[in-house]
Design goal:
ATP-binding; BioW; six-stranded mixed beta sheet; 2 domains; 6-carboxyhexanoate-CoA ligase activity; globular; three-stranded antiparallel beta sheet; biotin biosynthesis; 6 helices
Length: 252
């Protein structure tokens, strides 16, 4: 049996009580790995570049084998631009490949940046108009319960291709789960880590890393999922937040 372990941390109290989000992470692993992983996640919350958390919540759930869904990893592409403007323009161009209007992306980014602080989850926006479709405020939709099906083999596979680091691993897994939902046409993510100027877009079968998409030192970030107008929001939320998805690497 596998277990889902999830960490959320904040400074100034719990998120629900107005605490400022510091870090979040999760893993799906065996019982024998739980103790060490819990320690690693607590250390991450206490040593993050956004500050030292004073609220840390660890949640652990057992996962039945028949509740697991398997989905393939997205292909990986990388573009390095000369400036933030160039990086953002490349993001707009790539999302247009999946029929997401440039004006919709710009409107959705404006909505994201107008929030009083960084959102804890994702904005869900109409792919054609950019209108926000969820009603969850700063909470947004929090994608959860996902991991590589064979983590060690997956990391070895990507290391051979020159892709390493926890940011890459977590982003690819999340993007692969998100794009496996049929109503989602694409995603745009900008890291909220002030020391990390990389973002990504995902579309079709591709996870595309982009740098830079913001200036170093900028703490603003977040993620936007662009969906078809007729998307069932309750179904989307159940899949992204509650369904356990393990990501496979087909060439392994």
């Amino acid at each position: 049996m596998l277990y889902s372990i999830r960490m959320r941390s904040a400074k100034g109290g719990a998120h629900e009580n107005g605490g400022h989000h510091i870090s979040g992470a999760e893993r799906i692993l065996s019982k024998e790995e739980l103790a060490q992983t819990a320690s690693e996640l607590v250390t991450r919350a206490l040593t993050h570049s956004k500050g030292c958390a004073d609220f840390i919540r660890i949640t652990i759930d057992a996962i039945e084998d028949d509740a697991i869904v398997y989905k393939p990893a997205l292909d990986v592409a990388i573009t390095k631009s000369e400036s933030v403007t160039d990086g953002l323009n490349e993001a707009y161009r790539l999302l247009e490949v999946s029929g997401i209007k440039r004006e919709a992306v710009q409107k959705a980014l404006s909505t994201l940046h107008s929030q009083p602080e960084n959102m804890r989850g994702a904005l869900i926006c109409n792919a054609y108009t950019g209108e926000r479709m969820d009603t969850l405020g700063l909470r947004g939709v929090r994608v959860s319960r996902m991991a590589f099906a064979e983590p060690a083999k997956a990391l070895e596979h990507f290391a051979k291709e020159g892709h390493t680091g926890v940011h890459f691993e977590e982003a690819l897994v999340l993007a692969s789960k998100v794009l496996s939902y049929p109503g989602i046409l694409g995603e745009f993510c900008v890291s909220d880590d002030p020391d990390y100027a990389v973002g990504y877009v995902s579309y079709g079968n591709t996870y595309h890393r982009l740098t830079p998409v913001k200036e170093l030192g900028d703490q603003r970030g977040g993620r936007i999922f662009f969906v078809k107008p007729e998307t069932d929001m309750d179904s989307l939320r159940r899949y992204l937040e509650e369904t356990t998805v393990l990501i496979t690497i087909e060439s392994i």
